[in-house]
Amino acid sequence: MLAVIVSGLAIGAVYAATALAYNVMYSTSKVLSVTTGHLCMLGGVFGAWFIAGLGLPVPAGLVGAVLVGALFGGFTEIVGVRRVLARSDEHLWLLSTLALATMLQQAVGLWWGTEPKPFPRLIPQDFSSGLLDQKYWLPILTVLVMTAGLEAFYRLTLWGKLFQATSEDAFAARARGIPTDRVRLASYLLAGALGGLAGFAAGQLTFAFFALGLTLTLNGFIALAVGGLGSNLGALLGGAGLGLLSAFATYWFGGEYQQTIAVGLLMLVLLVRPEGLLGARRVRPV
Amino acid sequence: MRGSASGLSLALAGLALVTLPWWSGDLYQLHLVSLIGAYWVLVAGLNLVVGFAGQLSIGHVGLLAVGAYGFAVLAGTLGLDPLLVLPLCGALGGAAGLLLGLPSLRLPGFYFAMATMAFALIVTELSLAWGGLTGGGTGLSVPGFPAPFHTPWGQYWLILAIGAAVTAMTWGIARRMWGRALIAVRDSEVAAASVGINVFRVKLTVFVFSGVTAGLGGALFAALQTYITPDTFVFEIGLFFFVCIIIGGRGSILGPLIGTAVLTALPELVAPLAKLGTFFYGLTLLIVVLLVPEGIGRLVEVLAARLRAEPHRSHEVRPDLARLRRALTSQAGASPPVGEPPPVGETRPPEAPALAREALP
């Protein structure tokens, strides 16, 4: 039973990290990017390639994976979001980020191969340590640090306050002289870095697998919608809840019904509390 | 004039399609066109949802799988008459569409897209889990159609007939009040609701209709493939349907039809594209969204309108001052000159009215 809880929390941490990346991008651009899960996938795949493929030391691999994630995040903003936001059509960003996500997944699949490949050990540790193995506590620790860091960033630094001002009202922020375009680009770079970091930390749990992105995009979104759009603490709670639910569903019913149960949770929460557990109540625009 | 020309081209295209088995090169081409037809049956219904009502359903492959497995189980395992099973598959797809649409159509854009994507993943998951019914990972073999439709030609004609019927239905829906209501919902739900459109019911109805066509398309698709596994219905196929519509142009019927035909045929005919298939779809989608968000169909329309001789020229009226002065001076002396032929200009209409108007005060 303890094993189910620990593994559920670990995979839930990955979902929560994806939800955090969603939040960072959503706050400045009001865009829910389909590429979010793919950022984590990039962290895992490139981390494995840098360390196992190129033989770089672990810190260099970590920096590389984070850089690749941030680069792709910035690329998403420049190619897929910036031009589309200038137009008034509401859902074009969904199409452009979907296109980018598809292209990235296929490109990585062609280059890396379609089989999941093992992720190297990051910290020297015996394989017999069971539930204390790094593949469980590393993602959990990472996402806790990420959440605390994000909250500190938003509350304590000037750039964080710029993010918040842009998130509250982009037009007003612009009128006060905040370069909202640059803030948006910075938020995408930050989200990419967070995604890359999370994918790197969780690599031993999820393996370096090209199709991971789509699953994470969906499950991270479920965690986000359950926890409440825009709330970092909600993302953490939603991720943990979803991870535990998936783990227990696998434990009781077998692995076949994971997705069904996750979506069932999403539908239930959306029917009962459409704004999520900790989300702000949305006012319908007229 | 234009109506009869387009009617003629439509009749010619129809004739070419009906007689295709006699002039097409080989069975493979016939199979390819049949596949396009089966896809089109689904895309035609999806077009109403995506192109007209503006609901971005990226997981219609789930409904396709429901129709395909329904056909395989009912006609194969239970041994019912395939021609009877075909409408049953449509009903099955419609029921699945209702089940999916009831909760998810209430959600705003991105939530809805994610819900349909999740549905596609769930169907794959269940088709693996219910091994007793669906054969699990090994899949099911699918029976063909009975006597008049058992040859590749017969199958082709059956698909063609169903495709034509579905096209006619969507055409009828799109042109009349329903289609206008859908476009209103796409452009602004609030405005649509304020003029008395029951937004949710309109969306749900058209989504269930797309479920029916998806079920039919799935049955035809399964019969064409003759063997289906869960791997047949990967999420990328749903993306492919979606891309066909966006590329063809939203709010058009011909555009998505051409989009389906081109995107299905291109990877088959150009070998290097086959490996890059899905990457190519993504790239096309990105280019279209960034450069021509209205779709290539709209681009072609604009180009054609520019190339075609303009039917309405601008009738610019320029006063011919010299002639006017002459007319005024002659009017002062005697009666105006009669029978002077008006000078022939390139774009100018006959100038008499202009002269009269200028001469009046």
TrEMBL record, chain A:
InterPro entries: ABC_transp_permease, BCAA_transport_permease
UniProt topology in membrane: Multi-pass membrane protein
Major subcellular site: membrane
Xref: Pfam families: BPD_transp_2
Keywords: Amino-acid transport, Cell membrane, Membrane, Transmembrane, Transmembrane helix, Transport
Source organism, top-level taxon: Bacteria
Subcellular location: Cell membrane
CDD domains linked to this entry: TM_PBP1_LivH_like
Transmembrane intervals: 45-72, 92-112, 136-154, 183-201, 207-226, 233-254, 260-280
Homology family: Belongs to the binding-protein-dependent transport system permease family. LivHM subfamily.
Descriptive protein name: High-affinity branched-chain amino acid transport system permease protein LivH
Gene, per the UniProt record: livH_15
From TrEMBL, chain B:
TM ranges: 32-54, 61-78, 84-102, 109-133, 153-174, 204-228, 240-266, 273-292
Protein's UniProt keywords contain Iron-sulfur: no
InterPro entries per the UniProt record, alphabetical: ABC_transp_permease, LivM-like
CDD domains hit by this protein: TM_PBP1_LivM_like
Topology in the lipid bilayer: Multi-pass membrane protein
Keywords: Cell membrane, Membrane, Transmembrane, Transmembrane helix
One matching Pfam family: BPD_transp_2
Region (Disordered): 330-361
Localization terms from the record: Cell membrane
Designated name of the protein: High-affinity branched-chain amino acid transport system permease protein LivH
Source species: Methylobacterium isbiliense
Taxonomic classification: Bacteria, Pseudomonadati, Pseudomonadota, Alphaproteobacteria, Hyphomicrobiales
